[in-house]
From TrEMBL:
This is Endonuclease VIII. It comes from the Bacteria. One of its GO terms (biological process) is base-excision repair. Residues 238-272 form the FPG-type domain. It catalyses: Hydrolysis of DNA containing ring-opened 7-methylguanine residues, releasing 2,6-diamino-4-hydroxy-5-(N-methyl)formamidopyrimidine. PANTHER family: FORMAMIDOPYRIMIDINE-DNA GLYCOSYLASE (PTHR22993:SF9). SUPFAM superfamilies: Glucocorticoid receptor-like (DNA-binding domain), N-terminal domain of MutM-like DNA repair proteins, S13-like H2TH domain. Its cofactor is Zn(2+). Belongs to the FPG family. Residues 2-107 form the Formamidopyrimidine-DNA glycosylase catalytic domain. Pfam families: Fapy_DNA_glyco, H2TH, zf-FPG_IleRS. One of its GO terms (molecular function) is zinc ion binding. Keywords: DNA damage, DNA repair, DNA-binding, Endonuclease, Glycosidase, Hydrolase, Lyase, Metal-binding, Multifunctional enzyme, Nuclease, Zinc, Zinc-finger.
Amino acid sequence: MPELPEVEALAHHLREHAVGRTVARVDVASMSVLKTASPPWTALHGREVTGAGRRGKYLDLDCGGLHLVTHLARAGWLRWAQTLSAAPPKPGRGPLALRVHLGPPGQGPGFDLTEAGTKKGLAVWVVEDVGSIEQIATLGPDALDLTRDEFGALLAGRTERLKTVLTGQRVIAGIGNAYSDEIMHVARLSPYATPARLDEGQVDRLHAALREVLLAAVDRSVGQHAALLKGEKRSGLRVHARTGLPCPVCGDTIREVSFADKAFQYCPTCQTGGKPLADRRMSRLLK
């Protein structure tokens, strides 16, 4: 899933390549991705792109006061091209969900919003006020905007697992499964730690790790071609998606805890005092 660094890089790419161009046409290949009906997507036609930004993990393309907002979900992506086919896409064919022509169709550049797999979550809104989107209105503070004191106050009283707090978008916006694993590893904290029970030193480490991991990922990502961002993200990960490989810090084997539709990874030596966390999936298999 694209997280804060990748979405920031995509916004940067659009600021560099889309701002100043005019939306010539929008092709919708999957009506289910549209979460708003008024204004219609055709209202974007003829509007100049005046900005591009990020709200948590949401991508915001400002077209002269009318916003095309996208959440890429787990398997969505933005694919930029110098020339897009002029032929309207056939609905329901392949991963293409929506196409934006930023020049005469078949002659100018633009981008596709695509989504792989059968479980669809890609969402697109066309709105005048980005704050009118409930999912954005209810976002917590952006992860990179939090000071140490604000971060500490946010954790105080939280009894959920640390992993849950870091990935809860209504608590902190922008962090997902992958970077939360990386942040907790750098901070040397268990995913199952209780935020309210962290001492001041642990909160210091966690806040410093949050900024270190996210800012390093932004630095690696911004300026990369959109097609290279997924590979860039994988190359910078130390524990996430590295189950069975040695920890780059201590050499212990990276472990995994799996749930119904996702998993997280951690290092027992660095994060849990050498004790593996219970994995319900493995427990069932061993019965």
